[in-house]
Design goal:
Length: 434
């Protein structure tokens, strides 16, 4: 009986947990929720995060090469003999077992120092690339979110539009049966009704496609069920174009990456110069020979200090310096070109924001007038002062005005996200919306 109670309790707990999971899956997701999911589960973010961690580990590896090294070595030797005497002068016996404990320290090695400096800069570069990837993913999620919302709202408008054309079709049939309007009006009304039905089906497909893209970006399965929370438009403003340009040249990750690459090449050039200088190293050994006949006296220590300096490498260092100088020139050319591209991107996105904002306000103002025109046209059609074609065109204009308002509304926020992406300030806290 006690076991049964435990089983029942376990089922209830699991059932409640499952209900919570299902409920969580069907809770409408806000933009911030999607961004959090994307930064946690997006494949591109995970890959670039791995690259950032690799760069951090490589920096530690390079630094460890500058620290003292300790090694243990053991060996077993069997030497050739002649008249019970080893053939090798250095051999202590026919069979030898040796062991060494060594400590070494690089005193001055330009190559190892340059490798550490390069990996330190590479870590900063990977951090900039990681930030760049995050902003790219944020931009994709924001664009997909607003596209999905636009399609969702269009479905609602097309449904209302379809109902309006259905009523118009029924009304024209009734008026035709009473001999008020010709049969042509019925035909036109039916054709328009079917066309609007097709537009609704297209909007539904676009919404499903947009949701699937959102799932892909945030790391969910295509079969997962999600819904998007309604977005309420917020008051927002735009700064001046010079402010955005200045911010872009300061914050863009791509410029930072090129700057780090230039520093890496300059360090490499400095390293090539230092390789003309002597490199010094120090090592200490302690070892013993375990040969039975020599064990008591054949052990001891050894200290080594060495200097190495390149003498003739067929111009290898000179050629390497020339290569690095060319790389530095190329990086400077790329930096200048990138600044021009960034300026163009910022200017275009700023202009797009202003255009979408103006169009959004214009469509919002004309939406009420278009609705009044529909009601006036329907009344005129019933009294015979307006033709069926006028009613159809007026209804289509009303629908088009509403759709254009929605598109300009969501396009404005997407354009502003593009603007903030282009200045390198797109944040997951959606502060760019303000």
């Amino acid at each position: 009986m006690k076991i049964l109670r435990v089983v029942i309790l376990f089922v209830l707990i699991c059932g409640g947990f499952s209900i919570q999971i299902v409920f969580a899956q069907h809770t409408p997701l806000r933009l911030h929720d999607l961004i959090v999911l994307a930064l946690k589960q997006n494949a591109d973010v995970k890959i670039q995060s791995g690259e950032k961690n690799i760069a951090k580990l490589q920096k530690r590896q390079a630094f460890s090469q500058l620290l003292p090294q300790a090694d243990v070595e053991a060996g077993y030797f069997k030497n050739s003999v002649h008249n019970d005497v080893p053939d090798f002068v250095t051999a202590n016996g026919i069979i030898e077992k040796t062991a060494w404990l060594s400590f070494s320290q690089s005193v001055f090695n330009p190559g190892k120092v340059a490798d550490w400096l390069n990996n330190r800069l590479n870590q900063k570069k990977q951090e900039s690339l990681f930030n760049q990837t995050r902003q790219n993913v944020l931009m994709q999620v924001i664009g997909a979110y607003f596209t999905a919302l636009q399609n969702k709202d269009e479905i609602k408008i097309f449904k209302e539009n379809l109902n309006a054309f259905n009523l118009l079709y029924k009304q024209s049939r009734l008026l035709y049966e009473n001999g008020v309007v010709p049969q042509l009006d019925v035909k036109k009304s039916r054709v328009e009704y079917l066309l609007q039905e097709n537009a609704l089906a297209r909007a539904r497909k676009n919404y499903r496609d947009a949701l699937d893209y959102v799932k892909e970006l945030v790391g969910l399965q295509i079969g997962d069920s999600i819904s998007l929370a309604h977005f309420s438009g917020k008051s927002t403003h735009l700064d001046s174009l010079p402010v955005y340009l200045t911010t872009a040249f300061t914050n863009r990750s791509e410029l930072k990456v090129l700057g780090i690459q230039a520093r890496q090449f300059r360090n490499q050039k400095r390293s090539v110069f230092l390789q003309h200088l002597p490199s010094a190293s120090f090592a200490a050994y302690y070892g013993w020979d375990t040969n039975a006949s020599l064990r008591a006296g054949n052990r001891g220590w050894q200290i080594y200090a060495g200097i190495q300096m390149p003498l003739w490498h067929w111009g290898n260092l000179h050629q390497e310096r020339q290569i690095v100088e060319i790389r530095i020139q190329q990086t400077e050319i790329l930096r200048k070109r990138l600044k021009k591209q960034i300026a163009r991107q910022v200017i275009n996105s700023f202009k797009e924001c202003r255009i979408q904002l103006q169009q959004m306000r214009a469509m919002h103002e004309s939406e009420k007038d278009a609705g009044d025109a529909v009601r006036m046209a329907e009344l005129g059609y019933q009294t015979g002062t307006v033709t069926n074609l006028d009613v159809i065109n007026t209804q289509k204009l009303f629908t088009e005005t509403r759709v254009r308002y929605l598109r300009s509304l969501y396009s404005f926020y997407v354009a502003k996200a593009h603007l903030y992406r282009n200045i390198g300030k797109l944040k997951e806290d959606v502060s760019w919306l303000r």
